[in-house]
Write a structure and sequence with these properties.
The complex is a heterodimer of chains A (368) and B (260).
Chain A (H helix, E strand, L loop, with lengths): L3 E10 L2 E11 L4 E5 L6 H8 L7 E6 L2 E2 L10 E4 L11 H11 L4 H14 L15 H13 L5 E5 L7 H18 L2 E6 L2 H5 L4 E6 L2 E6 L1 H6 L4 H6 L3 E11 L5 E6 L5 E5 L11 E7 L11 E13 L2 E7 L6 E7 L14 E6 L5 E4 L2 H4 L1
Parallel strand pairs in A: 3-8, 3-9, 6-7, 7-8
Antiparallel strand pairs in A: 1-2, 1-4, 4-5, 9-10, 11-12, 11-14, 12-13, 14-19, 15-16, 15-18, 16-17
Helix pairs in contact in A: 2-3, 2-4
Chain B lengths: L1 H27 L16 H8 L1 H33 L3 H16 L2 H14 L6 H26 L2 H9 L4 H30 L2 H6 L6 H11 L4 H23 L3 H5 L2
The chains are: A alpha+beta (368), B mainly alpha (260).
């Protein structure tokens, strides 16, 4: 039994369908992430969970009861808003106290609970300040304190990491873990960046175009995506448009050739797709599975286009011939001065092992 | 050069605006009855005369109560209607806002004339309550507009955040919406007070024997040209100026000015 469950939920804004047949379940104590590009409907799911909007069809259950019964003081879901939504006319203390006061908790308890959360989130010396005197990171922590101090069963976080630099992001992730130990609540967070949730979430639902494409733990989503979108968005995989040439005896080993004609390769049919000769598929290979010098049984020659360097991580982009297709290669340099320097337009050989590649179905829709 | 021209131009406009006011203030301290040359000398006599004129005091008091009543009631109405309008779609709210503003843009002479008929019909003609109702009708749209614009600037997530923390709609309206907009509400009270306090045309039609201060002053001017009027006028002009400056100060966007 999940703490919160969506059953075939549809939602319309006016005449626009925003969510289409959404079903999933979140278990107690999880850190559940909704991941998708902006405008895919993920923030709407949060509004539905918090009861601020009602589904147009389907059911939302919290503790097996319809979500609409939790009203006013009985609400057990709070949100840390993307806009923070702090009360600008109230002090930090009054902001954090707000929910407790509304619930009619006595003054000394309020004081104790506010001091405690302020201690955990390092806000003790900021309590009497005005909201306008806080930095972005401090505002985020006040918003978090205000939402969690009332001990909600479920805490929703709408893009909690947007606008924070790396240090603040890491601090917030640590704060969230500490608070979960302390307050025993379930987190549901929304993000458009895979990097922000991959290390924090216990399970992730990937949403695209009003629908949930796949739900799973980060490892599964990263290594075994079921759709091209998840492969690209979560796993940062390279998808090469290909045609099936030959299917091995047990259907496990498949030989394909790229539609652009840049190569013929072997791959595992990990998802057991019912493949026949001449079927169109995506040949999927992770950007961290491709190597630039050592060999593998698969090979491809491509044209260097650009690179991105982030500390020891280097990302190279290579253009395949004839088409707009591109291959992304991610490597970690042993030190910062390694000599991988290609000049633009240079022909480079890329290698990988066939057991690391797999195939995904290519539907007509994907080509649009 | 451009800068000097701009300063000169602004200076001229300011002089043009303030000359009548300054003339009145200077004359209120004059010894003579009329504006004359050479200067007859300085004196406080008109102010002393004003402090002894109890009929004038009564009309001022009446205007004060009337102005405050109109200001508070109009602001309360504006607070509610402005909130309702601000939470509608832009199309609907702009149509309704125009509809709301109509009484305020009908010429006061016409409005006063019509209101006399109406007040007579419901039996309150020639009472201060009639003036109060008339002022609420013509000035509350201003408050609605002021509140509407303030509420449109508010982040709706803030209200949802309060809702989610368990606050009732009444609490959200008064503490969250009201709390973020108190400057606008006070500004609205001040502006409407000053307008109602000064309003002559409608009061002349409706007030009867319970003369408000502008009607009394107008009558005074018809009978005698006493420089006492300059004294009253100066006090009121300075007060109004201070009040309106406060209102304008309050109407700045508080978030913008704080978040520098």
């Amino acid at each position: 039994m999940g703490i919160i469950e969506f059953r075939n939920v549809d939602f319309y804004w006016g005449k626009n369908k925003v969510l289409d047949n959404i079903s999933f379940e979140v278990n107690k104590g999880e850190i559940f992430a909704l991941l998708g590009r902006s405008g895919c409907g993920k923030s709407t799911i949060l509004r539905l969970m918090s009861g601020l909007s009602r589904p147009s069809a389907g059911e939302i259950l919290i503790y097996e009861q319809d979500a609409s019964i939790y009203k006013g003081r009985d609400r057990c879901v709070t949100t840390v808003w993307q806009s923070k939504a702090l009360f600008p006319h109230l002090s930090v203390r009054a902001n954090i106290e707000f929910g407790l006061r509304v619930k009619g908790i006595n003054r000394s308890d309020i004081r104790k609970r506010v001091e405690k959360i302020a201690g955990v989130l390092e806000l003790e010396d900021k309590l009497e300040r005005s909201i306008f005197q806080l930095s972005g990171g401090e505002k985020q922590r006040v918003a978090l304190a205000r939402a969690i101090v009332i001990r909600p069963k479920i805490l929703l976080l709408d893009e909690p990491f947007s606008g924070l630099d790396l240090t603040l992001k890491q601090q917030l992730q640590a704060d969230l873990r500490n608070l979960q130990d302390e307050y025993q609540c379930t987190y549901i967070l929304v993000s458009h960046l895979m990097e922000d949730v991959l290390s924090l979430a216990t399970r992730i639902a990937v949403i695209q175009d009003k629908k949930i494409l796949q739900v799973g733990d980060p490892n599964t989503l990263y290594h075994s995506p079921l759709s091209p979108f998840v492969a690209e968005f979560v796993g940062k995989k390279n998808l090469i448009d290909s045609i099936v040439r030959n299917v091995g005896k047990n259907g496990k080993e498949v030989y394909v050739s790229a539609t652009s004609g840049v190569g013929n390769w072997k791959a595992r049919n990990r998802l057991n797709l019912p493949l026949n000769e001449n079927d169109r598929v995506y040949y999927v290979i992770g950007s961290d599975s491709i190597e630039l010098e050592s060999s593998g049984d698969c090979k491809l020659e491509a044209t260097f286009r650009d690179r991105e360097i982030e500390g020891r991580r280097r990302t190279y982009y290579f253009r395949l011939d004839g088409k707009k297709e591109e291959v992304r290669v991610e490597t970690y340099a042993p030190n910062l001065n390694i000599p991988y320097r290609f000049s633009r337009g240079e022909r480079v050989k890329l290698y990988w092992k066939s057991e690391e590649a797999f195939l995904l179905e290519k539907r007509i829709r994907d080509t649009e | 050069m451009k800068r000097i021209a701009a300063i000169v131009f602004l200076g001229l406009v300011i002089v043009l605006i303030f000359i009548p006011l300054l003339t009145m203030i200077v004359l209120s301290f004059s010894k003579g009855r009329f504006a004359s040359f050479p200067w007859p000398g300085w004196s406080f006599q008109w102010y002393l005369q004003f402090f002894e004129n109890s009929t004038l005091h009564l009309s001022l008091l009446r205007s004060l109560i009337l102005g405050m009543g109109a200001a508070f009631v109009s602001t309360l109405l504006g607070f509610g209607s402005g909130y309702a309008l601000s939470r509608m779609s832009s199309g609907k709210s702009s149509v309704l806002l125009i509809l709301f503003t109509l009484p305020a843009i009908v010429p006061f002479v016409l409005f006063g004339f019509c209101f006399v008929e109406f007040a007579g019909y419901i039996g309150i003609l020639r009472t201060t309550s009639a003036v109060l109702i008339a002022h609420i009708v013509v000035f509350s749209p201003l408050s609605t507009a002021l509140c509407f614009h303030r509420f449109r600037q508010l982040n709706l997530d803030i209200e949802d955040a309060a809702r989610e923390l368990g606050a009732s709609e009444t609490k959200i309206f008064f503490t969250i919406v009201g709390g973020q907009s108190w400057r606008t509400l006070i500004a609205s009270v001040i502006v409407i007070f000053v307008l109602s306090w000064d309003e002559y045309v409608i009061s002349w039609f409706v007030s009867g024997f319970n003369k408000t201060y502008p009607v009394y002053v107008r009558n005074m001017l018809e009978s005698t040209m006493s420089p006492e009027i300059n004294a009253v006028g100066s006090i009121i002009a300075v007060l109004s100026l201070c009040l309106m400056s406060t209102a304008l100060y309050l109407l700045r966007n508080p978030e913008k000015s704080k978040e520098k």
